[in-house]
Specification:
11 helices, globular, 210 residues, alpha+beta
């Protein structure tokens, strides 16, 4: 099952900001900074334990990446198994597959403030791929395909607010965005160096290879 509890609790568990709340992560005082230890009654005591086993490190990295992209355990494992047979570096292939999901693409293009908000847009049929409505957040976007916010959905407050924030930054090099037409295109398959997340994906490969 996908986690539905407080987003900040997940960030505290991983000990770093995962930016799960969109613009609020930049405007609010982050609980990770105020309480830099895991949630729960034993959080402070576990923070004093400096040494982690290799398995614990691998598990925490898997949980962190899974939470960043908002996937359930089954979805994450299925994605890994799918890319594990592809040529190239498995860890890089895993991140590229996660980045190619429609909910992530909508978020990267700046049409939603978070991946969670992007999933909501997609499920309510506010997003089109190559002119056709798609309501599946896990839909895999291929290079050359156009992602667009439907004409009738462009006045949505959450879309406008997200675009205002996105205008302050830049989209990844493998994505082209035209904010005037509320559309964008995936130019190429994302390479590791152009995926802006701090993760040690090789630890996930080691975990699932046992």
């Amino acid at each position: 099952m996908r986690y539905t509890g407080p987003s900040c609790r997940q960030c505290r568990r991983e000990g770093t900001k995962l930016f799960l709340k969109g613009t609020k992560c930049f405007t609010e005082k982050c609980p990770v900074e105020r309480r830099p230890y895991a949630p729960g009654q034993h959080g402070q005591s576990t923070a004093r334990r400096k040494k982690m086993s290799e398995y614990a490190k691998q598990l925490r990295e898997k949980q962190k990446i899974k939470r960043i992209y908002g996937l359930s355990e089954r979805q994450f494992r299925n994605t890994f198994e799918r890319v594990s047979t592809l040529p190239g570096v498995t860890g890089h292939n895993l991140l590229a597959a996660l980045e190619s999901r429609l909910d992530n693409i909508v978020y990267r293009m700046g049409f939603a403030a978070s991946r969670k908000a992007a999933r909501q847009l997609i499920r309510h049929r506010h997003v089109e791929v190559n002119g056709k409505s798609v309501d599946i957040p896990s839909f895999v976007v291929e290079p050359g395909q156009e992602v667009r916010v439907r004409q009738k959905s462009r006045e949505l407050v959450l879309v406008k607010e997200a675009l205002e924030v996105a205008a302050r930054g830049a989209s990844p090099a493998w994505i082209a965005v035209d904010k005037d037409t509320f559309s964008g295109r995936m130019l190429e398959r994302p390479q590791r160096q152009s995926i802006p997340i701090a993760a040690q994906e090789q630890l996930v490969v080691e975990l699932y290879s046992k």
